[in-house]
Amino acid sequence: MMSNQTKKETLTPDKQRVWSEKDLSLNPHAASDKANRVEAMFESISSRYDLNNRIHSFWLDQVWRKRAVAASDLHIEDEVVDVACGTGDLSIAFAKANAKSVTGIDFTQGMIDRAKEKIEGSDAPIEFITGDAMALDLQNESADVVSIAFGIRNVQDPAVAIDEFYRVLRPNGRLVILEFSTPKNALIRTVNNIYTKHIMPRTASFIAGDDSGAYHYLPKSVDTFLCAEELAKTIEHAGFVEVTQTPLTFGVCTITVGRKVSRS
Questions:
Q1: Which of 84, 106, 235, 262 is the most exposed place for a label (fewest CB within 10 A)?
Q2: DSSP string spanning 30-70?
Q3: pLDDT tens for residues 51-89?
């Protein structure tokens, strides 16, 4: 795994504009340096990340995370790994739900720093560390729940990450993925498209004082990512069983849950 220093040196030279209009006219998931771009993007927006999440989800983002925790079938002795944890909201939600321990992992140091600030001085059973979803520095079968909220589409190769999640889960462990999706209702889909593609990118960039293109990348990354059904098939291909999906807020996002097979 690359050190943080090495990664910083390989970032796009233009650290202000990570995603140009030309970049986003193509499929951003096909960019060979997607991981470095995503890291630079989140470093750029980390200071106003939570504020933008609250405002532009109409304060629903925390509700969605609580629903993800509920979907995990959490038990009091469960050890949770929250990948792409960002500023730690889902990790903290798991801790509040009485998880035995939570390890929050994110690729971006700026996000980890802000997550640590949130639990400073508390006795929450949470550890925040930097790491790569595709190469988790965790032992085999060391977690009961692996979660990832609004992050699987930002991974360089999601299928590799999902294989990693399977590896670190114990038998009967649960994978919980919360991700944006496309509403099936035509009217809701039209309204959502107007909001996410034309309004949110401008207002969020203004609030964040951001020139990286992060909030223009967001709708493009959703449009060009796997649909909910394709994500479910990818999870099944990795070996997960009993895969279920729950649309939230008219299908704006979806919780996908899969269980690792138990030992016979």
A1: 262
A2: G-TTHHHHHHHHHHHHGGGHHHHHHHHTTT-HHHHHHHHHH
A3: 999 999 999 999 999 999 999 999 999 999 999 999 999
